Each structure stands twice: as C-alpha cells, then as structure tokens.
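Hi P.,

Sorry for the delay on this. The queue was packed all week, but I finally got your sequence through. Input first:
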Amino acid sequence: MIVTILGVKVLITWILCVGYAVAIDTVFGLGRAIKHRKWNSSFGINGAIRKIAMMACMTFTVILDAECGFNVINLFPDGVVQQLAAVNIIHIGFSEFFGILFVAYECVSILKNMYLCGLPVKWVWLKVYKFLSKYTDELPDTEGIKF
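Then the structure:
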C-alpha cells in the first residue's frame, strides 16, 4: 500500500505485515491465557509495551526512509546482494530491514503460543528453538514448555 507522507509517496507494506503478526500473536497469546486460566499481568504489560514499541519503530522508520532514502543493502555480504539483485531487490530501507526482523520475532512467538494452545506444531517449535539456541542467546521464554 502506498501513502503520501510529507509529500513523499511511501510503501507501508512492512507496517501492515508487522501489524498482522502482532495481531496474530496477541490472539494466540490470549488463547494461551484462556487455556491455562492464567493471566500474568507483568508478561502481558511487557508484551503490550514491546508490541507498541515495534509499531512505533516501524512508523518512525517508514518516515525516516521517506525523508532520507537510506539503502542498507550494502551492509549485506556481496553474495547476498547478488542473490537479492537476481530477484530484482536493489533497495532495502530501514523499514524493510526492521520489518523483517520484527516479523521473524513475532513468528517465533506465534509458534510458541500455538504450541502452548495445544495445536500440533511441537515439531516445528522444537526445530526453531534448537536453531535459535545454536545461533543466538535471544531466546523466547519457555515457561510451561517441556522439552
């Protein structure tokens, strides 16, 4: 979707993608709370603050991209840049970069909440968790999950 911000036409697709991911995660988080009959307000408040901050960051980065036209594709390795160019991606602004990171973060949270709601996604969740534990220290909370 294209909108005009300060006289500049801007693509806000990533704001919508992050918004959809936040909404889906919220729905599954509510399902998890209903299933376990446990509403932990400290996690709920922290989660809400985190989601609001993500949406504010996305709004800011879209405005920043519209005003400054940053292109962060040159920060990627040459092989990645060539692969992106092969599929006609030659510009990645801050909004796209952070949008991809935020959607990936929300997808992990969605998978965790789907598993805790009782949906049959344990094998996917375990593979994602093992991958993340191998490559990062930033792991989602695993309260209530038995490995």
